Every structure is written in C-alpha cells, then in structure tokens.
Amino acid sequence: MAELREELKEKLIEQLSLEDVEIGEIGDDDPLFGDGLGLDSIDALELIVLLEKDYGIKLKDPKEGKAIFESIGVMADYIAKHRTK
Amino acid sequence: MIKEKYYISDFCSIRDKKVFKNGEQLYIDSESDSLKDFGKGIYQYLELKYPKFHKMDELCKLGFLASEVLLRDSDKLDQDTALVLSNRSSSLDTDRKHQVSIQDREDFYPSPAVFVYTLPNIIMGEISIKNKMKSENAFFVTESFDADLMSKYSKILMDTGKATNVICGWVDLDNDKYDVFLAFLSKKGRIELTKEELNNLYNQ
Description:
The complex is a heterodimer of chains A (85) and B (204).
Chain A: H1 2-15, H2 41-55, H3 65-68, H4 72-82
Helix pairs in contact in A: 1-4
Chain B: E1 7-15, E2 18-21, E3 24-28, H1 35-45, H2 58-71, E4 81-87, H3 92-102, H4 112-115, H5 122-131, E5 137-141, H6 147-159, E6 165-174, E7 177-186, E8 191-192, H7 195-202
Parallel strand pairs in B: 4-5, 4-6
Antiparallel strand pairs in B: 1-2, 1-7, 1-8, 2-3, 6-7
Helix pairs in contact in B: 1-2, 2-5, 6-7
C-alpha cells in the first residue's frame, strides 16, 4: 500500500503539473482539495481520467470523486479495492 | 466634439528567446531548448509565485508572462482595464494535443486540463483571474497584427466609458513559433495612440 501511495503522489505531481510540490511534501492524510494541495475542479476531472486510464476504475457518478479524492491515503485504499489493472 | 486623446503608456514583447519592455531588453535565454523551459525561465526571472501558471498551456503562459512584464512596477491597472487581444493561430497548438488524445477509439482519454485551453480567449481569463479583473474583453483572430483594429476597438471602449484603460496586443503560438506583443493604453503617456505608432512598436 505504501508503494501505491508513493506512485499516486508521483502521478499527481506529473499529471496535475504541480511543479512547485515535492513528493515528500504530500502527506498521506493531507486534504487534496481546499486548504491542502489546492486542487481545483479541472484537477478533479483529471483524477477521474487517471483512475480509468491507469487503474481501470470507471466512476459511474463523478460526485463519487469527492469522497475518493479526499487524500492520497483514501484514494490508495479505494484503488486497491477496485482496480482492474 | 473634442475627441479624447489616448496614449501608449507601456509596451512589451516576447520574441526569439528575449523579453523586451518599452524597447529595453529585460531577459534573454539562449540556452533552453523548449518553449516550456523558456517560459519557466521568465517565470523565475520575474520571481512569480503562482502555481496555476504551471497548469496553463504554452499560449496562455506567453500571454500571462507578457501581462506580468507589462504591469510590473505599475499601478495603472484598475477594475475597468479592458483586454483586447488577437492572434493568427487561435488555440491550434493545444487543439492538436487534444486531437491526438481523442483520435484512437481504443485509447480514448481526453485530458480535461488540455481541453479547457482549446479556446484562445482563455488567455484573457487567466490574466483577469490573476489581476482580479472583471472588465470588457475581446479576442480577434486575424492573419497578422492589425494595429488599426486594435487601436480603433480600444478607443471605442474608452470613448464609451466601457474601460478606463486597455491592454491590447498579439499573442500567437504555433508549433513552438511564438510572437507576443502587448501595449497598455490609457489617458496618460508619451506616445500618442495611433495605428501607425502601435504598428511601429509592434515591429520594433
């Protein structure tokens, strides 16, 4: 699970162009939106695409993302349970 | 009726790996191989701290950086400063990237972060967000820089009270070929706003 969390941090920095952020600065439980990493609504859509493209998880309702993308830890747990690739 | 005179207060350009403001070279980068690195170099030179910059497409980055250069050390900007921009290639550079991501039905993953930049007027949105502007804006796609159109349109905005100042210019990018020129138009300045003067400054 720790490996998946690190992988997600790397993907987040690369795919969401978080150029000023280092992997070590993202805590497993830090909120990704709002006061945390400050991601926005376009980033949320980008994360939905990432789930499908890299892990074969297709969200039926985009609103599900709000809970899944709470933090790296929550996201990793969800991926581990639902991934198809 | 006496017609109000308007002036070109400041102007800047980004061309050939160089940044100029009011005719003076501010920044040169002869080492970077890519437009992305060139833009990042200007961002660092200007000591900007604006993470959203890194998410912009290259066209927006160019327009955004030019606006930062133009407005640097200036207190002229206000809520009624309009934006009137133009270019030749629209958002073609990013349109192509989006097209690549949707042309294979077996590998169909369009990126929302790319898609949002498939309109050239997003440049004005980015500049407005950064500077908290809620003013008039217009974006024209023309074959080449049209100083007559830019000066006439800007004068109308100021004559009719739709704007107190105008940032006008040209922000073009296609396949790493870029050409950027912005001018700040207001009621004060040394160079009177005419299409000839605007054209001269663009061609400097």
